[in-house]
Amino acid sequence: MNTLSSILIVDDEPNNFDVIETFLYNENYQLYYAQNGHKAITSLERVQPDVILMDVMMPEMDGLETCQLIKQSARWQPVPIIMVTALTSKEDLARCLSAGADDFISKPIHGMELRSRIHSMLRIKHQYDQVQELLKWREDMVNMMVHDLRNSLTSMILSAHILKYPKLSPEKQQVKVDQIISAGEELQSMIDGLLIMAKLESGKMILNYSEVDIYSLCQSVVEEFSAIAEKKNIQFISELPEPGGSLKVDVAIFRRIINNLISNAIKFSPVNSQIILRANYIETGSAKFEIADFGPGVKKELREKIFDKYEIGTTINNTSQTGLGLAFCKIAIEAHGGKITLQDNHPQGSIFTVEVSEVVTSF
C-alpha cells in the first residue's frame, strides 16, 4: 500500500514543475503533473491528491476558475489548494482566497517556504482524514451495536410474549426463561465490555491487581461455557498447570479476556469439534495461555485487522463480527503489559496466544 503523500502540481510551464520537483526532491512525496485546469480536474480520481499546488495564470481555464470548480465538489473540497502567483496586490490575494484557496505562495518560489507551506497543508489534510476515519468507525460501530442490541432485545421480547401463553408447558416455559436470561446476560456483557474498554483507553481505569490460581481461573471459565459447548457437541480439552500457582492480574478483567476468547472459539467452531485451552507459568510472575479451535481459521489479510476496535464487515465462515470482543482483549492485555497473537492451528483453525508478565509498579 502506497503511504506517500501525493501532490498534484498544475502549471502550464513544464520548467516550473522541474523547479518544484527539485525543491521537493528529498521530501518523499509522490508528485503528479497537470498542464492545465481541465487536465487537473480529470486527473483527480486517478491521483487522489493530498495537496494541490496550482499556478494562477494559465491559458483557457486559469487557476482561480479551476480552484472554484474543485472546491464545489464535496468529494474534493477537503483537499488543500496552494495557489502559486506572481500577483502581489492584496486584492489579487483576496481573490485567491475567495476562489477557495487554502494558502498561496509568491513567485519566485523559495524552497524553504514551499516546503513549509506544503507541510502545513499536509498536516491539516491528515488531521481531516483522521477525523473522517474516526467518524466512519463510530458510525459503523453504532450501526453494528444497534443491530446486536436489537437482536438480544427481540429475543427477550418474543420469549416474554410466549410466556404469556396459558397452555405453555412447564418445560417450554423454562426454555423461554433461559432464553431471556441468556439474552439479558449477553446485553450486560456487551455494555460492560464497552465501558471497561473506554476506561482502559482513556487511562481512567486503575487495574485492581490480585493473585489468582491459573488452574482455578481456567476451570471456572470452562465450566461456565460447558452448557453452550454441549449444544454444538464441542469437547473442551484443558492442559493446565497443577493447582497452587499464582499470577498477579486484575482478576475480573482477565477472566473477561479468557471468556471472550473461549466464546469466540465456540462461535467459530463446527459441531462435533474440540477446543483446547492450554495454560502454564513461564517463570515466576509470568504466564502463557493458548486457546485453540478447529474452525475455518482467519485469513492472513485479516490477522491484523481482527484486533481493531469496531472492525466491521469481517466475515468468517459466514459469521460476521464487530471485532469488539477481540479489541477488548487486546486493550485489556496490553493494559496488563502483555500481548496477544494469532496463528494457524493444524490441520485447521486458529490459536490465540496470550502472554502476561510480572507486574512492575513504579512510584
3D structure, described in words:
This protein is α/β, with parallel strands linked by helices. Helix content is 47%, strand content 20%. The chain has three domains: 6-109, Rossmann fold (3-Layer(aba) Sandwich); 133-202, Helix Hairpins (Orthogonal Bundle), CATH 1.10.287; 209-356, Histidine kinase-like ATPase, C-terminal domain (Heat Shock Protein 90), CATH 3.30.565.10. The longest helix is centred in the middle third of the chain and has 53 residues, at 111-163. GO terms for molecular function: phosphorelay sensor kinase activity. Residues 144-360 form the Histidine kinase domain. Residues 6-122 form the Response regulatory domain. The modification 4-aspartylphosphate is found at residue 55.
Fold topology:
Elements: E1 6-10, H1 14-23, E2 30-34, H2 37-42, H3 44-47, E3 51-55, H4 63-71, E4 81-85, H5 90-98, E5 103-106, H6 111-163, H7 170-202, E6 209-212, H8 214-231, E7 235-239, E8 247-250, H9 251-268, E9 274-283, E10 286-293, E11 314-316, E12 319-321, H10 324-335, E13 339-344, E14 350-356
Helix pairs in contact: 6-7, 7-10, 8-9, 9-10
Number of strands: 14
Query: CATH homologous superfamily name of the largest domain?
Result: Histidine kinase-like ATPase, C-terminal domain
Give the overall form: elongated
Q: Given the structure, what is the number of helices?
A: 10
* Count of domains: 3
- Mean pLDDT, nearest integer? 86
Q: Briefly, what CATH class of the largest domain?
A: Alpha Beta
Q: Any idea what the radius of gyration is?
A: 29 Å
As residue ranges, the low-confidence spans are 312-318
Sheet of most strands: 5 strands, parallel
Query: What separation lies between the terminal Cα atoms?
Result: 43 Å
User: How much helix is in the residues?
Assistant: 40-55%
Q: What is the N-to-C order of secondary-structure elements (H for helix, E for strand)?
A: EHEHHEHEHEHHEHEEHEEEEHEE
**What share of the residues does DSSP label as strand, in percent?**
15-25%
CATH architecture of the largest domain: 2-Layer Sandwich
What name is given to the CATH topology of the largest domain? Heat Shock Protein 90
Strand order of the largest sheet: 2-1-3-4-5
**Which structural class do the helices and strands define?**
alpha/beta
